[in-house]
Amino acid sequence: MLDKIEYREDGVLVVFSGVVTSEELVSANTEVLRHLAQSPYRYQIFAFLDVENFIVSAEEMRYVAMQDIAAFKEHPIQKVATVSKSQLVYGIARMYDAFSCHSTAETQIFEELEDAERWVNS
Asked: How far is the C-alpha of 27 from the C-alpha of 9, rounded, in Å?
């Protein structure tokens, strides 16, 4: 479930927990990209904290990656961080990395939110 989208001065933090579905992920990503077009920022952090299940197919992750690639061409973003201790989320985040290999953004996966925060601000 989507917990919050927090827009910051130079980035955005998106937090999910519990059961995450493809519809929630695509909807949150679409909203974040709409905001990017109106108010450019340099990083995104997608934090999947206390996730019980992640119901997203490879094709849906490809769609999210393609959304990002298209948006980042017009509004370059520097870094995209994924945060989770879940092995399932880690695997799906690696799929996103593979699908977004032509993106202008650098991507990393972290287990701790604090590590992601440090990386996006480095």
From this structure: 22
In this structure, what token pair is assigned to residue 79?
């870094």
Assign 3-class secondary structure to 39-77.
CCCCEEEEEEEEEEEEECCHHHHHHHHHHHHHHHHHCCC
Domains of the chain (ranges, CATH numbers): 2-120 (3.30.750.24)
Considering only CA atoms, which of 13, 98, 97 is closest in space to residue 48? Answer: 13
The answer to whether the beta carbons of residues 34 and 74 sit under 8 Å apart is no
Q: What does the pLDDT look like over 45-58, one tens digit per residue?
A: 999 999 999 999 99
Give this prediction's pTM.
Answer: 0.94
